[in-house]
Amino acid sequence: MEVIGIVGLGIMGLGIAQVYAAAGHRVLATDGHDATRDAAKLRLRQSLARRVAAGKLTDVSMAATLTALEVVPDIADMGECDLVIEAIVEKLTAKQGLFVALESILRPDAILATNTSALSVGEIAGALNRPERLLGLHFFNPAPAMKLVELVTRPENAPDAVETARAVTEQAGKTVIQCADRPGFIVNRCARPFYGEALAMLEVGIPAVEIDAAMLAAGYRLGPFSLIDLIGADINLAATQGLYDGMNGNPRYYIFQNLRDQVASGNLGAKTGKGFVTGQSITAKPNDAIALRIEATLANEAASLLDEGDVSAVAIDQAMKLGLNYPRGPFESARAWGFGEIRAMLQQLEEKAPTHLKARYRISRSLAEMV
Ligand SMILES: NC(=O)c1ccc[n+]([C@@H]2O[C@H](COP(=O)([O-])OP(=O)(O)OC[C@H]3O[C@@H](n4cnc5c(N)ncnc54)[C@H](O)[C@@H]3O)[C@@H](O)[C@H]2O)c1
3.30.710.10, 1.10.1040.50, 1.10.10.10, 3.40.50.300: which CATH number matches 188-369? Predict the structure, then answer.
């Protein structure tokens, strides 16, 4: 069993610590904030107790998981770790500084991993003496429950680091999907049209509630506006901005004024009490025009990632289902509609696109060829 280090014990870090501790690894974890370190064990106990109460975990396993997690005062106490995963603040300089410090504490063959969602793993590695030891292990929230982990690799990565990171994470019960170090990796990139196309329809007067109701009827657990409200319009804006910048202003990631306005108004969703659809009861109501438009753009985005190589259509479908609980992957839904129908919808959207959305709906090469 490897010794796993976790730095940052916020929402993600503690969840990731639980994943490896439950799998029988010794986990050494720390956080820069004293009170967060002090509270970590109690938070883990409460999280595990809920699983015991739900009949999903035995008392014996709960005790073993709690024993496996050791909260240490500082990263200096992590010298024996084989793999250290960071889940600290999403800031390039903070992550670079942490890994530089870890390099001088860990054995040269230790593996370093970042849980970043939006930063470039290569840029984080740029400050290191042994950049080949750093990769991405991108977990989804809540980490103990969500099956998917994106393993973000670069050509210079040491093969043994990649294989060990994969093996210990699979052994901890996760489905690991390897992807290249590109903006949004797989899931956060391929999900953009779910929100973007909903905002495009809102822009032309289709009510948010109607759009959410159509996507519920199409089998999605939450509609795009309910999801933006849940996660926060500010987080959604930052994620879209990251993709827009990372993809050189491609109109597929256009940032809609209605999203900017929502953030500027301070109505960020659940966390502020008011959002796009907060407090409104939404019941599923089929609307093929809305569902087809969103699923056509989801398929086109997935196909654009496929065009870039290093990932298969099957892996993208699986990642979208496991990372976001989508009822179908983007290629599966395109197949269900018929690829011809998907292309016809995109062509129609492109023909009618207003100036600010021109080229947004251009059909990706691999989608053009799918039958
Ligand atoms: N929240 C999500 O849904 C989600 C999903 C996937 C990935 N991520 C990524 O995971 C990381 C953590 O996100 P989170 O939501 O758990 O954040 P969080 O704010 O809940 O936790 C971050 C923790 O890191 C600690 N910290 C900050 N800087 C530190 C440092 N230099 N050294 C040690 N500890 C430090 C903080 O005290 C805090 O406890 C970010 O990179 C984020 O982008 C978040």
Answer: 1.10.1040.50
With residues binned 3-state (H G I as helix, E B as strand, rest as coil), the percentages for the chain, rounded to 5, are 55, 10, 35
Which of 138, 197, 295, 300 is labelled catalytic?
A: 138
pLDDT exceeds 90 at position 1: no
pLDDT of residue 53: 96
Non-local CB neighbours of 207 within 8 Å, separated by 6+ positions: none
Instruction: Compute, in angstroms, the gap from residue 154 CA to the centroid of ligand 1.
Output: 23
Query: pLDDT digit string (tens) for 181-223?
Result: 999 999 999 999 999 999 999 999 999 999 999 999 999 999 9
> Residue 121's closest CA among 183, 174, 177, 75?
183
Fold (topology level) of 3-180: Rossmann fold (3.40.50)
Task: Spell out which residues line ligand 1, taking CB within 6 angstroms.
Answer: 7-13, 31-33, 36, 87-90, 94, 98, 115-117, 139, 141
pLDDT digits (tens, 9 = 90+) for 71-93: 999 999 999 999 999 999 999 99
The rounded distance, in Å, linking the Cα atoms of 35 and 13 is 15
Which of 6, 47, 105, 115 has most ligand 1 atoms within 8 Å of its beta carbon, as the pocket-test mutant? 115
Query: Is 117 in the active site?
Result: yes
Q: Where in the chain is the domain with CATH 1.10.1040.50?
A: 188-369
- Mean per-residue pLDDT, 318-337: 97
> Stretch 282-302: mean pLDDT, rounded?
98
Q: CA-CA distance, 234 to 322, in Å (whole number)?
A: 24
